[in-house]
Design a protein that fits this description.
52% of the residues lie in helices and 11% in strands. The strands form five sheets. It has a five-stranded mixed sheet with strand order 2-3-4-6-5. Strands 1-11 form a two-stranded parallel sheet. Strands 7-8 form a two-stranded antiparallel ribbon. The protein has 647 residues and is α+β, with helices and mostly antiparallel strands. Strand 12 and strand 13 form a beta hairpin. The radius of gyration is 24 Å and the shape is globular. One of its GO terms (molecular function) is metalloexopeptidase activity.
Length: 647
């Protein structure tokens, strides 16, 4: 039996992202703008295969060839004839959907490898019985041989992404260790205009998009993006990002490039992502009110005034319905761009992805773990609304607050990411989460989101309880063997759990119990009467430390603080290593999303939607790249082959 951590269960949640209503309200010009931007995003997103693992691109091409020739329903008959049970064939569909959804064979949320939950000989039999294999036996045999071993391998190093002997990465060559990464970073820091972007066959769609831009800022933004992707220029992408910030309140919002550094084991280089979304005007009104009140709320944060930005540059903050999100995963909210100098001098934008939130955080009572029965009904009712408040505060006043002393402590081309490297992403997520917890205690914040009186008190309680529960769930993303965390947000939430447990006075309770099934379980409790006193005080003190250490580039102090609260051990009041086993025993797989495609039909653009299932997700991907499929296969395989000597 393979450890369930390393495969996706057959009953994994798969949901379609609904954007039909929002898309149909667009004008013909806006639909074409959205279409060509989406094409650029999807083609660029294929770069993530090469950024994830040495074998991901080969697996992707093999699966694409199989399903281009036979739909999931047609292939089911082949699978039966090849000796697969219905459960084994479903496991194959789930694996394929998972590879597409994560753009590689490592989970985007947690960075652990996942393999097919069926025997290797059964999968080989299916591959060789497929129509794709019958028509191109030599090519398909070569593809199978190139990836089949790594596709199933669970050697220790290959179980997760990481640097050196801690895991697999394609951000560095196979013989690189942390010291090599530090040396490379020092060299790159000395070259102010260094380039880390790869070029990809996506610029044609960016060029075509320009004809449908709504204004000059969008045209200049796209022009700089094209220059960036053609030349590999970071400076061009930064200029494009500046124009993007100036493009206030567009109906069709987007961002594209090598953005988040979560998966670089050194925490500096960006992974590709591109999104296209349509503004949800009703929900955006809440966020607009939050933005207009930001200058009232910022002084409420616990650090001295000198540690806050001189001027708060009011950003766009909109709720969006995602049409396209290409990359390794889809977040609930985004605060971008990530260039510190632009953020401090020109500002940033915040977006909350409404149709993602409504699906991802819908909770069924029977699947809720680690809570008291008395809390479950309220949690089901208010988890979504409370998370909406948390996302708003996290993105706008979390990531949007605080100052870096760039002329005194940050030197030359040093940035937050390059300076704090391996802890930078999680540390910053923790700071933003703490800001959300702290400011949600303000009644005038809650009233912006329509919460008053008892309802407001309940939203605060569920928000804090949800954060503590998330901290416990975060243990799934800790690897004891390497004593490392594989997911920035979940590490951040565990740190917050530790801080609130340390506060004492009965604020948070966490005990190990035996479940009704006779297996190990755990129970979380929170004394809601102490949130505004004990809880607020603990977050106040911790948040102040986080900001001062960040502002002054105190890497040594910041790492000592963050590593202390990130420690997972079997000593102390809580045996977190044993609790981790309980969390793994009762974990629920993260949902996957099926996204629509757009298609030009004469002068109009059509939206093509798919069912929320593994088969629907597969169909969406095979149809997404059918126009130039053979050339795309060849390009991916060529790039994968050229990189191969590095591993």
């Amino acid at each position: 039996m393979v450890d369930s951590l390393y495969y996706l269960p057959n009953d994994i949640g798969v949901s379609a992202l609904d954007c039909g209503k929002a898309f149909r309200l667009l004008s013909p010009q806006e639909k074409k703008y959205a279409h060509y931007l989406s094409r650029a995003a999807w083609y660029g997103g294929l770069a993530v295969l090469l950024q994830t693992s040495p074998e991901s691109a080969d697996i992707f091409v093999m699966l694409q060839r199989i399903f281009r020739k036979q739909t999931p329903s047609t292939l089911a008959q082949v699978a039966t004839a090849a000796g697969l049970s219905s459960e084994e064939y479903q496991a194959f569909l789930v694996y394929t959907a998972g590879l597409y959804a994560n753009m590689g064979n490592y989970k985007s949320f947690g960075d652990t490898k996942f393999i097919p939950n069926l025997p290797k000989d059964k999968l080989e039999a299916l591959v060789k019985a497929s129509q794709a294999f019958e028509e191109q036996p030599a090519e398909m045999e070569a593809l199978w041989n190139s990836c089949s071993c790594l596709l199933y391998s669970l050697e220790d190093k290959q179980k997760q992404l990481g640097l050196g002997d801690k895991g697999i990465t394609t951000y560095f060559s196979g013989n690189c260790c942390l010291e090599d990464a530090e040396l490379a970073q020092k060299f790159l820091d000395s070259k102010v205009n260094f380039c880390h972007h790869s070029t990809f066959e996506m610029t044609n769609s960016c060029f075509r998009t320009q004809a449908y831009a709504a204004n000059e800022n969008q045209r200049k933004m796209l022009e700089e993006y094209c220059r960036s992707f053609t030349l590999g220029s970071v400076e061009a992408h930064k200029k494009g990002s500046s124009y993007w910030i100036k493009d206030k309140g567009p109906i069709v919002e987007s961002y594209i490039g090598f953005i988040e550094s979560y998966r670089d084991p050194f925490g500096s280089r960006g992974e590709f992502e591109g999104f296209v979304a349509v503004v949800n005007k009703a929900m955006s009104e809440h966020f607009a009110k939050l933005v207009s009140s930001a200058e009232v709320f910022l002084p409420e944060l616990p650090w001295p005034r000198e540690f806050e930005k001189d001027t708060f540059l009011k950003p766009d903050f909109t709720s969006l319905d995602v049409l396209t999100f290409a990359g390794s995963g889809i977040p609930a909210g985004i605060n971008i761009p990530n260039y510190d100098d632009i953020r401090q001098s020109e500002g940033f934008k915040n977006v909350s992805l409404g149709n993602v939130l409504s699906v991802a955080y819908a909770t069924k009572k029977e699947k809720l773990t680690f809570l008291e029965e008395d809390d479950k009904d309220l949690f089901v009712k208010l988890n979504g609304p409370s998370f909406e408040v948390q996302v708003g505060l996290h993105e706008l006043l979390g990531h949007g607050s605080g100052k870096l002393f760039v002329s005194s402590w940050y030197r030359g081309s040093e940035t937050w990411d390059s300076k704090f490297s391996t802890i930078a992403s999680s540390y910053e997520e923790c700071r933003a989460e703490c800001v959300g917890l702290y400011l949600c205690l303000k009644k005038n914040v809650l009233s912006i989101f329509g919460h008053e009186g008892e309802d407001a008190d309940n939203v605060v309680y569920i928000n804090w309880l949800s954060m503590v529960r998330a901290g416990l769930l975060g243990l799934e993303f800790y690897t004891p063997e390497s004593k490392s965390w594989r997911q920035a947000h979940m590490q951040a939430r565990f740190v917050i759990l530790r801080v609130l447990l340390e506060a004492g006075e009965g604020l948070v309770g966490l005990e190990e119990v035996t479940g009704q099934d006779g297996k190990p379980d755990a129970r979380i409790t929170m004394d809601r009467s102490k949130i505004h006193t004990v809880g607020k005080g603990a977050i106040h003190r911790f948040l102040c430390k986080l900001q001062v250490l960040k502002s002054t580039a105190d890497v040594e102090g910041g790492r000592a603080l963050y590593d202390f609260y990130s420690t997972v051990s079997d000593t102390g009041t809580q045996n977190f290593l044993r609790l981790r086993e309980t969390v793994l025993l009762r974990k629920e797989a993260r949902k996957m999303f099926v996204q629509a495609n757009t298609k030009v039909n004469g002068d109009s653009v059509e939206l093509v939607e798919y069912e929320g299932s593994a088969a629907g997700l597969i169909c969406s991907f095979t149809e997404r790249f059918q126009d130039d499929a053979e050339q795309l296969d060849a390009d991916l395989l060529d790039m994968s082959k050229r990189d191969a000597p590095c591993w």
